[in-house]
Amino acid sequence: MALFNFRRDTAPQGVNAEVEAFLKGYSIEVMPRTAEKVEDFRAILPKGTRVYIAHIDGTPIEDMVATAKRIAGEGFDVMPHIPARIIKDKATLADWIARYKAEAGVKQALLLGGGIPTPAGDFDNSMQLIETGLFDGFERLHVAGHPEGNKDIDPKGGDEVVMKALAWKNAWAERTDAKVAVATQFCFEAGPVIEWANKLSAAGVKIPVHIGVAGPAKLQTLIKFAIACGVGPSLRVLQKRAMDVTKLLMPYEPTEFVTELAAHAAKTPNFNIEQVHFFPLGGIKTNAQWVTDNGGASGVPANA
Fold it and tell me: Mind telling me which InterPro entries this protein's record contains (predicted)?
């Protein structure tokens, strides 16, 4: 039984038009174990939604491929994570890609370093994955972005190494036939994200950005994930909220964050954040309902 109705062609009453436009074509992330809790993705996501499949260290490739096959079979574009640091060697990478293509028809992937500090094999970063040539022929390839820095890449907390890597990837994006985008870690403050996006543009990085947004969740859950994922200064938004007794037990929703970004995008034609990518930390059904309530299901998502 379908949980939501995605057949409507107009936005729900009271929806902010700027937010509705900003949410158009949003993507969302699942893991094999969270995907198992969803009976049918067609009941909760609009047609054409891109579904990332997060590959956590220790997850068997068989589970990843089976999840990709199942979600693709329900009519969605699947984009599995390919984390460099958990892959033993080029032969293993080639085997994974072959399985994804043969069993799930995968033509898209998110290439990233991965969250473990010590590589399990030959690869340390996404650039090394690209240089294997094994992703030639893919229709779309995304790379990771970190608006608040990444201490795995820049231990001192700066962004010099990250910016050099993005410059390299920008040059590669201009050579490849694949569509390329930067999919970012989730954040909680719009101002610093806008500054970061503008910094990319000023540095000549033309790759479009898909900004990471944490979906609705309990405050304690968000703080736990934010610390584990290395979220930077914008964590203070949650910490400030935690100090307010009236809000402590209320679930967090990304309304303010998304609304501020949407307003900036509406008045800035060349803004390089073109889409939203959701991390459903409070559950994919809860996240999907929030997007629906804010206009995200009022039209067919873009393919960009």
Answer: FAD-linked_oxidoreductase-like (IPR029041)
Alpha helices in the chain, H assignment, sequence order: 17-23, 32-35, 61-73, 90-104, 126-131, 160-175, 190-202, 219-228, 235-242, 245-248, 255-267, 284-293
Residues 256-294 have pLDDT tens digits of 999 999 999 999 989 999 999 999 989 999 999 999 999
CA distance 208 to 254: 21
More confident residue, 4 or 134: 134
Q: What's 284's domain CATH number?
A: 3.20.20.220
State which amino acid sits at residue 37. Answer: K
- Structural tokens at position 138: 């893919």
Domain that holds residue 205: 17-293
Q: For 81-110, write each residue's pLDDT tens digit.
A: 999 999 999 999 999 999 999 999 999 999
Pairing mode of beta strands 140-145, 77-83:
unpaired
DSSP bridge partners of 145: 184
List residues bridging with 78 in a β-sheet: 51
User: Is 287 within the bounds of a domain?
Assistant: yes
62 within some domain: yes
- CA distances in angstroms from 273 to 66, 78, 198, 297, listed in the order given: 32, 21, 10, 20
Q: What is each CA distance from 272 to 1, 127, 153, 206, in whole angstroms? A: 38, 22, 23, 8
Count of domains in the chain? 1
Alpha carbon separation from 267 to 7, 18, 93, 256, 260 (Å, rounded): 30, 10, 43, 17, 11
Domain assignment of residue 230, yes or no:
yes
Residue 64 within a domain: yes
As a whole number of angstroms, the distance between CA 200 and CA 209 comes to 10
Q: 80: which strand partners?
A: 53
